[in-house]
Amino acid sequence: MNQGKQILVVEDEIITAKVIQKKLISLGYNVPVTVASGEEAIKKVKENNPDLVLMDINLETKMDGIEAASIIRSFSNIPVIYLTTHSDDKTLERAKITEPYAYMVKPFEEKGLQINLDVIFFKHKIERINHENEALIQASKTKSEFMMAVTHELRTPLNAIIGFSEILKSKNNGTLNETQEKYVERIHSSGNNLLGIINNILDLSSAEAGKIALSREKISLGVLFNDVIDIVKESTISKKIQIKTEIDPGLQPIEADKNRVKQVIYNILNNSIKFSNPEGIISMTAKKEGDMAQVTISDRGIGIKEEDLRKLFNDFEQIDKGASRHYGGLGLGLVISKKLVDLHGGKIGVKSKYGEGTTITFSLPITAKS
């Protein structure tokens, strides 16, 4: 367990330093050198970057152990343990300011030394993990805020592009020839696709930053089914896809955010249509399961490989690069859907068989949880 851990011993009593070095080596630690002054200790920390420093407080040199530890702390987070036989109150008060990991009283037994070092290395590991986690959380927050700012800025000119293309399509300001109509249609279609991607990124960033607030009201899942089916009507007609719906008559309206639940249903259904074969069938059901409303959307499309299922709700994770290039999208729809379902206090899951289709089920509380 201790193999590879390097310890720097700072002790001006040569015999004591050698005894400590010998005990540490017998415990499996790497102690290539001992030093007798604070100046040497600072130099060796910079050169060798040890895992731990055992520092005698009362060094009989120009710089004592406390001053040396303070300087080491200014450029490194290597843990320092003070070694002492006795010290006056003033010295101990100075020592506390440098926030050492521990104090060890000389002489010490080998077993006690081992226990102390095990505890200190474990404590340092936990602190390092916590520090890294805090850095990751801050980086994620910064990324989310940056993405929110960028997407907001992109939406304004993009909405203008879509708006002007709609004006051209209306022909209120003059007719277009066939080629021009085709180009305007492509501009309008591409603009809407890009706006959808930007909106997804904005939603994801808002969710990660905790800036999505739910506006709950009594809503009917049957009505939402019909609303979403109307939105995707053009896609279903072009692929000759049939959508079958079934609503449990015992399912009463649920307390949820109408627009966000509608967004979840749309994201899942849109995916089902995208990955369904022409003339396919998609089924949508809503039923009561205890105190939850359960929505299931099943298709008979291309399905998902078993090893890819775990990636389905990961940010920007396209589970099949070839399919993603063919069908388009960043793979954000289901990620956002999971975050919205989680925000409602529900759950979402997926079952799929490659080549045979996919079933996605999510549940929401019928009565909002306080």
Question: Please, could you describe this protein's structure?
Answer:
This protein has 3 domains: 7-108, Rossmann fold (3-Layer(aba) Sandwich), CATH 3.40.50; 140-208, Helix Hairpins; 216-365, Histidine kinase-like ATPase, C-terminal domain (Heat Shock Protein 90), CATH 3.30.565.10. The protein has 370 residues and is an alpha/beta fold. 51% of the residues lie in helices and 18% in strands. The strands form 3 sheets. The protein has a 5-stranded parallel β-sheet, with helices on both faces. The protein has a 5-stranded mixed β-sheet with strand order 7-9-10-12-11, covered by helices on one side. Helix 9 packs antiparallel against helix 11.
Question: Which labels suit this protein?
Answer:
alpha/beta, Rossmann fold, Helix Hairpins, five-stranded parallel beta sheet, 51% helix
What order do the helices and strands come in, and which of them pair?
Elements: E1 7-10, H1 14-26, E2 34-35, H2 38-48, E3 52-56, H3 65-75, E4 80-84, H4 89-97, E5 102-105, H5 110-170, H6 178-208, E6 216-219, H7 221-231, H8 233-239, E7 242-247, E8 254-257, H9 258-274, E9 281-289, E10 292-298, H10 321-327, H11 333-344, E11 347-353, E12 357-365
Parallel strand pairs: 1-2, 1-3, 3-4, 4-5, 7-9
Antiparallel strand pairs: 6-8, 9-10, 10-12, 11-12
Specify the helix fraction band: 40-55%
CATH topology of the largest domain: Heat Shock Protein 90
CATH architecture of the largest domain: 2-Layer Sandwich
Strand content: 15-25%
Largest sheet: 5 strands, parallel
Rg from C-alpha positions?
Answer: 32 Å
Number of strands: 12
Low-confidence stretches: 321-327
Structural domains: how many: 3
CATH superfamily of the largest domain: Histidine kinase-like ATPase, C-terminal domain
Shape: elongated
Look at the structure and give the CATH class of the largest domain.
Answer: Alpha Beta
Q: Strand pairing plus helix content: what structural class? A: alpha/beta
Strand order of the largest sheet: 2-1-3-4-5
How far is the N terminus from the C terminus? 48 Å
- Count of individual helical segments: 11
Query: What's the average pLDDT?
Result: 83
Oligomer category? single chain
Q: What string gives the helices and strands in order?
A: EHEHEHEHEHHEHHEEHEEHHEE
